[in-house]
Amino acid sequence: MKEGSNRPGHRIETLAIHAGQPPDPATGAVVTPINMSANFEYVDLEETRTEYGYARLKAPTRDALEACLAAIEGAEHGLAFSSGIAATDVILRTLAPGDHVMATHDLFGGTYGLFENVLRPRGLDFSYVDMTDLAAVEADFRPRTRLLFVETPTNPLLQIIDLTRICEAAHRRRAKVVVDNTFATPVLQRPLELGADIVLHSTTKFMGGHSDLMGGALMLDDADDYTAFKFLQYQAGAIPGAFDCWLMLRSLKTLVVRVERGCESARRIAAFLDGHPAIAAVYYPGLADHPGHALAARQMDDFGTMIAFQPKGGKEAASRIFRAVRLFIRASSLGAVESLIVYPSSGPHIATKDTELALPPDLLRLSIGLEHVDDLIEDLDQALAEN
Ligand SMILES: *Cc1c(COP(=O)(O)O)cnc(C)c1O
């Protein structure tokens, strides 16, 4: 355990419950208190009573969360933000005009929107590459490539990128690697162990897990990068509030069991869809014929809870299925206790519409929650029956 606790135990199940959260020294409270104070007392002109002065700079409940986030990802440092996009923005702000970022060509639409609509106009250069093809990655390096921005599994097509080899290629060119680990979570994949420099999360998803809070996180070992990101965290101010930090801490305690159960159900649902006559294609790395299956089996501890598919019959069929589900909730986001179905092209990936990153027009994405798996399969079965 690297931060925040002197208790024994270094496995993720244990860290998710205890790291950064010893019983409150003042009261013995088992649960980390929510400290809502925005400001903290001074005792002299330049001296605060404790390490705290103003909550944008440093706050007790956020400190507890950041220690826990670092510990579960096996990182020296953790930083919490008000959203995943805010965390992404902080990394990119450390680059200079003219710098180049190479990103996966299957990419969360909000990230693509930040890159193209906010950061490119300010002078950063971006390219989008199929990173399952290492030769394509090698060919895309430029003199000012500073960063590789990698999703794996990618959102929403569930491609698997070889992190060890991507990190080797990047480091030979003195570029850093950011891995958006939102889909896998540290329960299934630990990019820092595979050579990545920075791990990014939308904690809105699995980490929060209940569709009721937004957040982002950065985990990393490098002290200089940490100092730069910490500076931007308070200087640009995209911090989470104390209540959201507390909710996140509460959610993290069950992260491992939620993800493990979700994987079990997703495996069965993917197999059901794969064999269904109304389905044209299923994207799930746990299927033996998925092109990234062998790599996922090495790089991850399980295959995740996200599934994408294309029905036979094109966009009309997709629309019929989307409207016909009764238990799956038609909503954006993912990684929640509720199972969700989304049409990525209109929701989370709207920014990629009519661009080189546009998705197949009949693609649907499922996020498998914690309902009984047979109920979920029955729901899909009745929705597919009409096709
Ligand atoms: C949702 C998401 C993000 C962005 O996070 P927000 O919390 O919505 O800002 C980034 N990456 C992936 C893979 C996501 O699914």
Summarize the biggest pleated sheet: 7 strands, mixed
* Fraction in helix: 25-40%
- End-to-end gap: 52 Å
Number of helices: 13
Spatial extent as radius of gyration: 21 Å
What sequence of helices (H) and strands (E) makes up the elements? HEEHEHEHEHEHEHEEHHHEHEHEEEH
Strand order of the largest sheet: 3-9-8-7-6-4-5
Low-confidence stretches: 1-5
Mean pLDDT: 96
Approximate shape: globular
Backbone structural class: alpha/beta
Ligand identities: pyridoxal-5'-phosphate
Count of β-strands: 14
β content, as a range?
15-25%
Structure description:
This protein has 387 residues and is of the alpha/beta class. Helix content is 36%, strand content 16%. The chain has helices at residues 12-18, 60-72, 84-93, 109-119, 134-140, 163-172, 185-188, 223-236, 242-252, 255-274, 293-299, 314-324, 373-385, and strands spanning 42-44, 47-48, 77-81, 100-104, 125-129, 145-151, 176-180, 198-202, 216-220, 279-283, 306-311, 329-330, 340-342, 364-367. The strands form three sheets. The protein has a seven-stranded mixed sheet with strand order 3-9-8-7-6-4-5, with helices on both faces. Strands 10-11-14-13-12 form a five-stranded mixed sheet. The chain has a two-stranded antiparallel ribbon with strand order 1-2. Helix 2 packs parallel to helix 9 and helix 3 (84-93) packs across helix 4 (109-119). 49% of the residues are buried. The structure holds pyridoxal-5'-phosphate (PLP). Pyridoxal-5'-phosphate is lined by residues 83-85, 108, 110-111, 151, 155, 180, 182-183, 202, 204-205, 214, 216.
